[in-house]
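Notes from the 1:1 (GR / supervisor)

We went over the backlog. Supervisor wanted to see one worked example end to end before approving the batch request, so GR pasted a single chain during the call. The sequence is below; no edits were made to it. Supervisor asked that the structure be written out right there so they could see what the output format looks like.
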Amino acid sequence: MKLCRELPVALTIAGSDSGGGAGIQADLKTFAAFGVHGASAIACLTAQNPRRVLAVGSCSPKMLRQQIEAVFEELKPAAVKTGMLFSAKNISVVANFFRNPKSEIRNPKLVVDPVMVSTSGVRLFQPAAEKFLKEKLLPLAALVTPNLDEAEILAEQKISSPEDLRSAARKIHSRFGCAVLVKGGHLKNSTDAADIFFDGETELLLSAPFVKGISTHGTGCTYSAAICAALALGHDLPCAVEIGKNFITAAIARSYRIGKHFALGNFPLKDLASLTGKTARDSSRSDKCNCCRSR
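Structure output shown during the call:
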C-alpha cells in the first residue's frame, strides 16, 4: 500500500458566494484543481447569484480571527489570499494577525485581491475600509491584484491605455511596497486581455485573446487563487503570476452553462503540468519548474 502524499495548504480569507461562482467557493475549486489543500476563513456572507448581489453581511471580527487561528494552529498554510473582507474591522483583524506573528509559520506568502469594486462597478467596501486596506494590509502583501477600478483608486489616476497600466503598477508598488498585478481585462478598445505585473525589478506583460461570447463573474477571485496555489506549490512570484494568467484564460475558455449564465471551468489535475511544470505530487522536490529555473 502506498503512503499518502502530503499536500501543501493554501488559505483563502474572503466572502462566501451563495451562487458558487466567486469568493470562497471559487477559491476552493481553484485550489482543488491545483492539487492544493484549501482552507478557508469566511469574512462575510453574500446573498448573490450570477446576476446581482442582494445582500452582504459581515462576519464578526472575533469569529474571523478564530477561523484564521484555527487553520494556522494545525495546517500551516504555505500561501494565503484575501478576497472580500468588506469592513475596516475585518481588515484590521487580518493585518494584525500577519503583522504580529508568534512564530515563523505565520509568514506565508500573502496575495491580496482588494475586492473594492466589482467588475460591474458596485462598491464592495464599507467607506472606512479603504483607508485600513491601504495603511495596514497592503504593506504586508507579497502581491496585490486590483482590477481597473481598484487600480485607479490605489494609484489615484485614470487608466485608459496599456501605458496607463504600466504607470499605475509602478505607482502602486512605490506607494505600498508590494508587487502588483494590474488586471486590464476590461480596458476599453483593447483587442486582448492584457495585465501588467511589476515587483520593483521584473515587469511582465501578460496578454491573452478575449474569449468571445462568454461573460462570467469570479474571474478575479479565480485568478488570484490560482496565483496563491502556485505559490503554495513552491513557484516564485513572477512564475506564479504567469501560471495564474494561463489558468484563468483556460478557465474562461472552458466555461460551462448554469441556467442562463456561465460559470468558469477548471483544468483537471492531470492537465495542470502543462501550466505549472509540477503539481502537488512533486511539490516537495527542490528542483524548479522551467519557468522558475529560467529566472
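Supervisor's comment: Residues 55 and 169 are 32 Å apart (CA to CA).
Batch request approved.
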